Amino acid sequence: MIRPRKMKQIEMTVLERDVDRVIEFLGKRGIMQFSEKDTSIEKHSSEKDDVGEARVNAEKTSTHTQENLEKLKTVAAYLEIELPTEPEKTAGLPAKGEEELCEQIVNTVNAVSKVEHEKNLERQKIEATLTESKSFANLNAPFKELDQLSYLTLRVGRLDPQSRKEMQETLTDRVVIVPLDDERVLAAASRRGRFALDSELKKRSFMPIAIPEGYKGIPEELLASLENRIKQMERELQGIAKQKVRLHNEYEKSLKSLVSSHLMATQVEKLKTRLVSTKSVYMLSGWVPSDAIIDLVDGLSKLTDGRVAVRAFDPDEVKSIKDGTEKVPVSLKHGRFVEGF
Length: 341
Description:
alpha+beta; five-stranded antiparallel β-sheet; four-stranded antiparallel β-sheet; 10 helices; 9 strands; disordered C terminus
């Protein structure tokens, strides 16, 4: 037979250095239900300056945690890793070293993502250039006039490898540069990008190679170079796809653990913004079964090395009960005071 358990309201004074671990402890034990009364910091604290600083610090921590969480979600989506939406049962707050691990994973995956994005863009531009070039391959018009007839501006000449790289980075969304051999390149741009292309080539000592006078259509050598470059892009993208699979397997467990701990940290920070606090102290107030208080206090004392003060009140001693603004909880069956614990 289920019987209601006698409840008591408790108030805990916890140092700022211990509050995260105390909230984590209470959440995992599922033993405390926070009071329904207003716990607004502005209304309860007289130390306005300390409260303001505590509020700012809490918001900074919360923002940083949320930023890390979003970064982790982004890289997990890229690696096609399914993440938990709530903290796992074994999850704790972010441990020492997790910040560095988070940064390492995010930087590694973002670097791969950036390269893949750039390779895809380059492949698309080369494919567009090849398609346009093939359209005019058999056109009975001199090569030098094709850039007047088509949507392409084509330049063939000598350009050193470093200049090629710099040009590609500078005009990444407007120009495609295809190596023909160790010295020669084909540079292509849309009609709108002609001025930018010619300006960059001039700055980088580009040496044009003359196409034989009267040559008509597009030289087969240029078409072959574009096709070979596309094949090379496809091979490189296949290599990146394999790298993504490796990173998926390597980081899946760590990403799930990191996200779980950051979800818990987010919930803890959210709860802290509702608590009465000063610069160095937090006040936690809520309802606990009477027969669980001794064990609870013992556990908190061990957790904080005795740096916690707890007061307990019978329902008839609590003013908010007397004036009807709060009711005594009847049951703690759900055992949760923060969603996700």
